[in-house]
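Q: Predict the assembly, please.
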Amino acid sequence: MSQTSEHHKCVIIGSGPAGYTAAIYAARADMKPVLYQGMEPGGQLMLTTDVDNFPGYPKGINGAQMMSDLKEQAERFETDVRDGWVTKVDFSKTPHTLTIGENEKTLTADTVIISTGASAKWLGLESEIRLRDAGGGVSACAVCDGFFYKGMDVAIVGAGDSAAEEATYLAKLCNKVYMLVRKDHFRASKAMQHRVNATENIEVLFNTETKEVLGKEAVEGVRVINTKTNEEKDLPISGFFVAIGHKPNTDLFKEYLELDQTGYIINKPGTSKTNVEGVFVAGDAADHVYRQAITAAGTGCMAALDAERYLASKGLH
Ligand code: NDP
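A: Predicted assembly structure:
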């Protein structure tokens, strides 16, 4: 049996840079936010090793440490950070209703900030996941991690716009980039294909699937198979990038919110507003283009400011 016992001005769903930044702003505006950390506290940055591109950390920072710092900062202003995840929402009327856990508790909220992020898709190979989790050179973000492979040889899997864009990004830093494409053609736009083909140090291997990422503690190579000839070969590389798409964590909201074809929440341009009053979105749940910690943090700030203005306009704050 669920029980409604709590009402809040602001509930934030998700604990990546977007959620915590929204919490810091909302808490400082005295909105007394409650933040549910979700299934993967800290979000995608928990899978990164060093973050060198977040302003303010001249020596870089470990991803997990950065998330712990953001949490501490949000709690300093008395954000109520809670374990648990939201399993159901009802945005059909105000205040909005959220169910936590398996019908464990029901809350109402005047504003909801969605910062549930997106999850990178992985191939699912044991060697890939093991080296990813060990921080051993497997990454789903070239912009975040490409720098660590300066002057080295790397491989990237995927044939869409992301893979093409990330391959050309890596090609500027790395000695050589193998692009592993499972079909005999790209999915990427013609313009992106042209950029790949015009980059000398990218070698595209069509009809190529990954069998295994080689290396015990760090990537030393990749074993690939040509699906037309069944020929296997090992490519010596130091970094293995996966760019086969992301899945925004938005299934929970599809009944109420406008989503694009892939499931990203559609926000009103230049704002964090969704199509439902009092419901705001920040970070990768609405962003398939930039997907950076700093852009997530920026939109988290926007969401808190938009939520505060909404509350004020309704005489609720
Ligand atoms: P997409 O879904 O467009 O492409 C995913 C790619 O990964 C496909 O080529 C697919 O291969 C491949 N793939 C999927 N699973 C596997 C697997 N198990 N093994 C090997 N390859 C696999 O994702 P993107 O992230 O590239 O793009 C998402 C959206 O964002 C798109 O709409 C894209 O246009 C957009 N985007 C736009 C950019 C821009 O305009 N600058 C930049 C980046 C993204 P297959 O083709 O064989 O199915």
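The helical segments are 17-28, 63-76, 126-133, 142-145, 161-173, 190-197, 293-313. Residues 123, 157-163, 165, 182-183, 187, 244-245, 288 surround NDP (CB under 6 Å).
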